[in-house]
Amino acid sequence: MKKRECDEERELYVKINMEGVLIGRKVNLSAFNNYQQLSHAVDQLFSKKDSSDLNRQYTLVYEDTEGDKVLVGDVPWEMFVSTVKRLHVLKTFHISSLSPRKRGQE
């Protein structure tokens, strides 16, 4: 029984939403060791046929514990896992709104 409780404590589920998709999903970040594995899993969650097409059209961002939206990969993996609150898959042309210059003006 204790082993199962320890396994559950190590699981870190976060919600992930894709722009244009009404139903969100959850991913267990503790199942991944790096950004590449996470990105591949997100491709599989949301792609219908060609995941390489998904990579060109969408970018993965996350909301941290302070409510800021940050590009996935901008901080070391361990820091990301400890601060991520929610994941978002946004259309690539919307990413320019996340630039540090614009965020500082808001």
TrEMBL record:
<dbReference type="InterPro" id="IPR003311">
    <property type="entry name" value="AUX_IAA"/>
</dbReference>
<dbReference type="GO" id="GO:0009734">
    <property type="term" value="P:auxin-activated signaling pathway"/>
</dbReference>
<dbReference type="GO" id="GO:0042802">
    <property type="term" value="F:identical protein binding"/>
</dbReference>
<comment type="subunit">
    <text>Homodimers and heterodimers.</text>
</comment>
<protein>
    <recommendedName>
        <fullName>Auxin-responsive protein</fullName>
    </recommendedName>
</protein>
<dbReference type="GO" id="GO:0006355">
    <property type="term" value="P:regulation of DNA-templated transcription"/>
</dbReference>
<keyword id="KW-0927">Auxin signaling pathway</keyword>
<keyword id="KW-0678">Repressor</keyword>
<dbReference type="Pfam" id="PF02309">
    <property type="entry name" value="AUX_IAA"/>
</dbReference>
<keyword id="KW-0805">Transcription regulation</keyword>
<comment type="function">
    <text>Aux/IAA proteins are short-lived transcriptional factors that function as repressors of early auxin response genes at low auxin concentrations.</text>
</comment>
<feature type="domain" description="PB1">
    <location>
        <begin position="11"/>
        <end position="92"/>
    </location>
</feature>
<dbReference type="InterPro" id="IPR033389">
    <property type="entry name" value="AUX/IAA_dom"/>
</dbReference>
<dbReference type="GO" id="GO:0005634">
    <property type="term" value="C:nucleus"/>
</dbReference>
<dbReference type="GO" id="GO:0010102">
    <property type="term" value="P:lateral root morphogenesis"/>
</dbReference>
<comment type="similarity">
    <text>Belongs to the Aux/IAA family.</text>
</comment>
<dbReference type="GO" id="GO:0000976">
    <property type="term" value="F:transcription cis-regulatory region binding"/>
</dbReference>
<dbReference type="InterPro" id="IPR053793">
    <property type="entry name" value="PB1-like"/>
</dbReference>
<keyword id="KW-0804">Transcription</keyword>
<keyword id="KW-0539">Nucleus</keyword>
